Amino acid sequence: MALATTFLSSANSFLSSSSSSSSSSSLFFRQKNNAMRQVSICRAFSESPSPSPSSPILTKRSLSISFITSFVFSLASRSNSSANAAILEADDDEELLERVKRDRKKRIERQGFISSSNKETGYLQDLVYKLSKVGQAIENNDLSTAGSVLGGSTNTDWVQKANIAFSKLSSSTEEKKQVDTFNSSLSSLISSVTGKDIESSKLAFVSSATAFEKWTTLTGLFGQLKGL
C-alpha cells in the first residue's frame, strides 16, 4: 500500500512538474513567435519605399501623357475616318461619272437609231396629226369629225403603222407599258366617239395623249416630232 501510495504521489509530482514545464515551454514559443512576427512587420515597414515628394507630380505627368496620347490617337482615328469618307465619296463621284457617261452613250446610240428610222418616225408624225385633229374636234363637241379621223376601230392603217413604230423604237419596260396604255385609251376613245359620249371621249383622249407624250419623252422623240 505504502509503495503504491508513494508511486502515485511521485507520479502526480512528475505530471505536475511536466505540466508546468510544458506550460512554460508553450509560453516561451508563443512569446518567440510574437517577437518574430513583430520583427517581420517592422522589417516590412522599414523595407517599403517611403513616399517621394515627386510622386504626385509623376502621377499628374503620367495622366497628362495618357490624355495627350489618347487625344493624338483620337485625332488619328478621325483623320483616318475622314480619309476613308473622302475615298468613299471619290468612289461615289467616279461611279456617278461613269453612270452619266453610260447614259449619255445610250442617248447618243438611241438618237442615231431614231435618226435612221425615218419611216417609223413618219408613222408617228402622222399619229400626232391625227390626235391633234381629234382633240380639236372633241373640244368643239364635234364627235362626227373626230369619228371620221379615228376611223371607227384600232385596225385602221394609221393605228397599225403607229404600232409598228412603237414596237421598233420601244426598248424599256416602261416604254412598252406606255404603249399598252396608249392603245387601251385609244380603243376607249374610238368607242366613246362612236357612242356619241362627249365626256367619256374627252377623258379617253386625255389619257391617250398623255401616254403618247410620256412614251416620246422616254424614247427621246419628244423634241423631234412636230406638234407636241
UniProtKB/TrEMBL annotation:
Source organism superkingdom: Eukaryota
Record InterPro entries: MPH2 (IPR038862), MPH2_C (IPR049072)
Organism (species): Manihot esculenta (Cassava)
Maintenance of Photosystem II under High light 2 C-terminal domain: residues covered: 123-228
One BP annotation, GO: photosystem II repair
Name of this chain's protein: Maintenance of Photosystem II under High light 2 C-terminal domain-containing protein
